[in-house]
Design brief:
25% strand; 5 helices; signal; nine-stranded mixed sheet; alpha/beta; 262 residues; Collagenase (Catalytic Domain); Peptidase M10 metallopeptidase domain-containing protein; MetalloPept_cat_dom_sf; metallopeptidase activity
Length: 262
Amino acid sequence: MTKLNRRRLFAVIMTLFAVGALASVAYANHSWGGYHWARTSNPFTLKLGDNVTSAWDAYLAGASADWSQSNVLDTTIVAGGVKSPKNCRPTAGRIEVCNAKYGNNGWLGLAQIWITGGVHISQGIAKMNDTYFNTSQYNTPAWRRLVMCQEVAHAFGLDHQDENFNNPNLGSCMDYTGDPDGPLSNEHPNAHDFEQLGIIYAHLDTTTTVGAGVAPRNGKANLDNPTEWGQVVRQDARGRSSLYERDLGGGRKVVTFVFWAD
């Protein structure tokens, strides 16, 4: 092989390597707006308030075990802190997880996080809508695992990997799909989800919002009604509004992620 041909071959190899590296970075880049829990060390432990019925206990336990495989965070299930799962009010410093018949409002699951200082999560909720999960279409282990896994992870600051319902499954619960058990199964996190958590929580903060005992102002606001969710920030691949932000002023806001039913 001539020197010129060797140079050309080397250039082609380096180009392919660069493209592959960029694709890998893009694939793993699914942070939710840079939002994260403030903390002073890793790994840190987030409490998941158990406000779910027995029909959901195994799925909450499974999601907690799955996400605790991360190198930067652990989760622990504690007694729920809400008076009524139907309302599912947040508790400062942790994530409340609820299920109830929230009505024929179009959504399967919903996650909300309260932000202070522009990017720090101070509390969160994850809700599963039994109005739909009690139907034959969604009352399956695969659908319950997918939605529970995804809504809890949104409260970590994790976004979707993909929002196209019609392409092949990525093997991640952060991937939209109409067929959660696959192939591939979208019922659990995959390596890219853990990679992204590592990126989100690579830095440390000088303060912590984890386990904080004081709720932020407007922390108990009633945000069940979509008219209270604020401005539409993003739509999914089907043109449905999926991400909302309500500005509370002073670097404070509430961010709502909606998982719509078909």
